[in-house]
Automatic annotation (TrEMBL):
<dbReference type="InterPro" id="IPR035090">
    <property type="entry name" value="Pyridoxal_P_attach_site"/>
</dbReference>
<keyword id="KW-0021">Allosteric enzyme</keyword>
<dbReference type="Pfam" id="PF00343">
    <property type="entry name" value="Phosphorylase"/>
</dbReference>
<protein>
    <recommendedName>
        <fullName>glycogen phosphorylase</fullName>
        <ecNumber>2.4.1.1</ecNumber>
    </recommendedName>
</protein>
<comment type="similarity">
    <text>Belongs to the glycogen phosphorylase family.</text>
</comment>
<keyword id="KW-0808">Transferase</keyword>
<dbReference type="InterPro" id="IPR024517">
    <property type="entry name" value="Glycogen_phosphorylase_DUF3417"/>
</dbReference>
<keyword id="KW-0328">Glycosyltransferase</keyword>
<feature type="modified residue" description="N6-(pyridoxal phosphate)lysine">
    <location>
        <position position="563"/>
    </location>
</feature>
<feature type="domain" description="DUF3417">
    <location>
        <begin position="2"/>
        <end position="68"/>
    </location>
</feature>
<dbReference type="Pfam" id="PF11897">
    <property type="entry name" value="DUF3417"/>
</dbReference>
<keyword id="KW-0663">Pyridoxal phosphate</keyword>
<dbReference type="InterPro" id="IPR000811">
    <property type="entry name" value="Glyco_trans_35"/>
</dbReference>
<dbReference type="GO" id="GO:0008184">
    <property type="term" value="F:glycogen phosphorylase activity"/>
</dbReference>
<comment type="function">
    <text>Phosphorylase is an important allosteric enzyme in carbohydrate metabolism. Enzymes from different sources differ in their regulatory mechanisms and in their natural substrates. However, all known phosphorylases share catalytic and structural properties.</text>
</comment>
<dbReference type="InterPro" id="IPR011834">
    <property type="entry name" value="Agluc_phsphrylas"/>
</dbReference>
<dbReference type="InterPro" id="IPR052182">
    <property type="entry name" value="Glycogen/Maltodextrin_Phosph"/>
</dbReference>
């Protein structure tokens, strides 16, 4: 936008008559036209009618490009990569977010190293966005009702992310009062009510913006709504209100909405979840405010922490997101497991591994994060078309060509990227010191900062305490020895922002900055303020090692290490997030975790820092500096090659979006289509009936019989169970045998479930008899139990209602451990 605004009209007129320029322009425009309108991965799937017609993707922040600064950290960058990869694959996504007039803060440092925040005003007319307009040319608007008869109005800005439209709501419009104009002022700013209004505008206003966009453009209406973290959870309430207005009761509308909703949780840290006082939420809903067709008690019931360990007076946005979605996921295999533990209270009676939260491991958008030099190397080997497919669609077969790249080529590539980083760091460091008040005459030393031939380590992320920015400073003498080693030195580039309200995080930044200011080491370790996309695109490719040392398991995924890997960087990380899932010695090093129950936090940091120093001294630096017969570090180069060949295809956002389409979006679209109003009423009525009658369901007797005197491997037991169903019928439940290995506490692990069949009943006492086989198919300590779950064809999971009945101890004859 700035470029076009600065080119004189005479120059544009001159170019309009330049045939060579026009040929180039036509070729580029045709290429873009093919990208935007041609068939891509999604359009070439078998049975395309089975796929969702459209998916709406809601997120509080989007990191699309440095020219559109509407992100704070990993959540926004992930959302931006999701949109860009959906565009590459042809997935019909509509992004929905807010347009913050100040974005997230810009960071600088005071002379003594304290973080300072600045909030430059962003003019949408200078951003790559355009107003969505009605047919008569007036700006399209959405409005929310506020208590006291006020309105919160918002315009809709459209950012075209390739094929994907991103709708961004902006409350800074003249018709609003001063308070309402400021609702979309800053990302994650303001107090509780301010945040609540932002999230109501994102969720409720966002759905209205999607409806407006589809009406004006003819875009297919979304069949699936994807809630990226709890901030956008109110979108489900607006969709319920739409159905209630069309004649459905609340419970039936809830079932219809849940069927087509996907919820992704991004944090294993409770502090990362927005929670509001119930009175504040109640104040903003009901007859005098928003969604008057839905009773306030219905709204509150969706978000209150009414489970063991919860705080019943708090409204939890993630809890509401989970209750409003039939499908939910974490963002790495480990995070899925942590989330099942964290939210297990919503499904009482079920072991955490049965909580219906799956995982789709995050990925990164390679065309955004891979250095042009790496892309050119791929193009020389694969050609432009296959390189583009390798970076967008993925697939290991497209990455195998890296195996044939010569060692010399890989080493020259890595040194070139390191050299670019050195120049970038010096330029940014000089600008930072000038902001801190230093004069030019004081800064001659910056010309000697970093060395393009020294092993370079990168560490850049947000600065909450659990990410442990200063773990590297735990033993400063050892760190100095590593930085200043006469033969095998290291150099470190650090960046990161602390939240404006987090003084503890700011103290960590200051502690690190003061260390980097030490004249003895300042040529080997630097802190760069104002970490963002533009810096990351230079920093990530230039680092040989990407360091990550969070407190395990508090890192949900941690995608920056993936971006480093796509450029041939090796990871040095605690086994957390994605690294726990995909770590191999070929790709880097795992920092051991000291997470024993008796280890206090200080002791844990000491142990893990010592392990980090040991790895750097004994394994990492020797491998980088040792030379083979060719005079190159051939063992290091082989690790780079293996990282690109084997890890590269896994860390792609293309792989991630394909998983969302196949595992979550498509099943959600099918559930949405099958959930007609009549079926929604049927399911809601059935759930109400089952909940009311569940107190009458019990397992009264369990017995086994076998043809042999001892239970041996391969034996099949006959299992007979007598149950009471109360007011329910066999069609309402499934009676299951649950069997598996038994751990030292006599708990069944790695369980297998087998449904039992009713053979008689009800008798005069109301008992039903169920039977089925139980195969002893494994050796070792082995046990079984029986349970009853609700079942219905429209449920996505047997755990969905959170209801389960198991036998009392006296009901089991001969059950327990069968084999040892």
């Amino acid at each position: 936008m700035r470029l076009l605004g600065s080119v004189p009209s005479a120059r544009l007129a001159e170019l309009a008559g330049d045939r060579r320029f026009l040929r180039r322009l036509t070729a580029v425009a045709d290429d873009l036209g093919d990208y935007v309108t041609g068939d891509r991965w999604y359009q070439t799937r078998p049975q395309p009618a089975e796929l969702p017609a459209a998916v709406a993707y809601f997120s509080p922040e989007f990191g699309i490009t440095a020219a559109l600064p509407q992100y704070s950290g990993g959540l926004g960058i992930l959302a931006g990569d999701h949109l860009k990869s959906a565009s590459d694959l042809g997935v019909p996504l509509i992004g929905v977010g807010l347009l913050y007039r100040h974005g997230y803060f810009r960071q600088s440092l005071s002379r003594d190293g304290w973080q300072q925040e600045h909030y430059p005003v962003l003019d949408p007319n200078e951003l790559p966005v355009a107003l969505l307009k009605e047919a008569d040319g007036t700006p399209a608007q959405v409005a929310l009702a506020l208590p006291g008869g006020r309105l919160l109005r918002a315009r809709i800005w459209l950012a075209q992310v390739g094929r994907v439209p991103l709708l961004m709501l902006d409350s800074d419009v003249e018709e609003n009062d001063v308070g309402e104009r400021g609702v979309t002022d800053r990302l994650y700013g303001g107090g509780s009510e301010h945040r609540l209004l932002q999230e109501m505008l994102l969720g409720i206003g966002g759905v209205r913006a999607v409806r407006t966009y589809c009406r004006l453009t003819g875009h297919p209406e979304p069949e699936v709504f994807h809630t990226n973290e709890g901030h956008a959870g109110f979108l489900g309430l607006e969709r319920i209100a739409e159905l209630v207005a069309a004649g459905l009761d609340f419970d039936s509308a809830l079932e219809a909405v849940r069927a087509g909703t996907v919820f992704t949780t991004h944090t294993p840290v409770p502090a990362g979840i927005d929670r509001f006082d119930r009175e504040l939420v109640a104040h903003h809903f009901g007859t005098d405010a928003e969604l008057p067709g839905i009773g306030v008690e219905h709204v509150l019931r969706l978000g209150m922490e009414t489970y063991p360990g919860g705080e019943p007076n708090l409204f939890n946005m993630a809890v509401m997101g989970l209750r409003l979605a039939q499908r939910a996921n974490g963002v790495s295999l480990l995070h899925g497991s942590v989330s099942r533990e964290m939210f297990a209270g919503l499904w009482p009676g079920f072991d955490p591994d049965e909580v219906p939260i799956t995982s789709v491991t995050n990925g990164v958008h390679a065309p955004t994060w891979v250095a042009p030099e790496v892309v050119r190397l791929g193009a020389r080997r694969l050609g432009d078309r296959r390189t583009e497919e390798a970076l967008t669609v993925g697939g290991p077969e497209r990455w195998d060509a890296v195996a044939s790249v010569a060692d010399q080529e890989i080493w020259e590539l890595r040194r070139g990227l390191r050299e670019q980083l050195v120049l970038e760091v010096r330029e940014r460091l000089r600008a930072s010191w000038r902001q801190r008040g230093a004069g030019t005459a004081e800064l001659g030393w910056i010309d000697g900062v970093l060395d393009p031939d020294v092993l370079t380590i990168g560490f850049a992320r947000r600065v909450p305490s659990y990410k442990r920015l200063t773990l590297m400073l735990r033993d400063r003498d050892r760190l100095m020895d590593l930085l200043l080693h006469p033969e095998r030195p290291i150099q470190i580039v650090v960046a990161g922002k602390a939240h404006p309200a987090d003084d503890g995080g700011k103290r960590l930044v200051q502690e690190l900055v003061r260390f980097t200011d030490d004249p003895r080491v300042r040529h080997r370790v630097v802190f760069l303020p104002d970490y963002g996309m533009a810096m990351a695109q230079k920093l990530l490719p230039g680092c040989d090692i990407w360091l990550n040392n969070p407190l395990r398991p508090l890192e949900a995924c941690g995608t920056s290490g993936m971006k480093a890997a796509l450029n041939g960087g090796l990871n040095l990380s605690v086994l957390d997030g994605w690294w726990d899932e995909w770590f191999q010695p070929d790709f880097g090093w795992a920092v051991p975790t000291a997470d024993g129950a008796g280890t206090d936090p200080d002791r844990r940091d000491d142990i893990e820092a010592a392990a980090l120093y040991d790895l750097l001294e004994q394994r990492v630096t020797p491998r980088f500096y040792e030379r083979g017969r060719s005079g190159l570090p051939d063992r290091w180069i082989e690790m780079v090659r293996q990282t690109l060949t084997l890890l590269g295809p896994k860390v792609l956002a293309g792989r991630m979006v394909r998983e969302y389409v196949e595992r979550l979006y498509t099943p959600a679209a099918h559930a949405h289509r099958s959930m007609t109003p009549d079926r929604a009423r049927e399911l809601a009525a059935w759930k109400g009936r089952v909940r009311a009658a569940w107190h009458g369901v019990s397992v009264d007797h369990v017995e086994t019989a076998t043809a042999t005197a001892t239970a041996e491997l391969g034996t099949t037991l006959a299992l007979r169970v007598r149950v009471r169903l109360g007011d329910l019928a066999p069609d309402d439940v499934e009676v299951q045998a649950v069997s598996g290995r038994v751990d030292p506490e006599d708990r069944i692990t790695d369980a297998t479930t087998v449904p039992l069949k009713p053979i008689a009943g009800p008798d005069l006492e109301g008992h039903w008899t169920y039977e089925g086989p139980l195969s002893l198919d494994r050796t070792g300590p082995y046990g079984y139990t029986v349970r009853i779950l609700p079942t219905h064809r429209l449920l996505a999971s047997g755990a969905e209602l959170g209801l389960v009945t198991a036998p009392s101890e006296g009901a089991v004859a001969g059950a327990g451990v069968l084999m040892r």
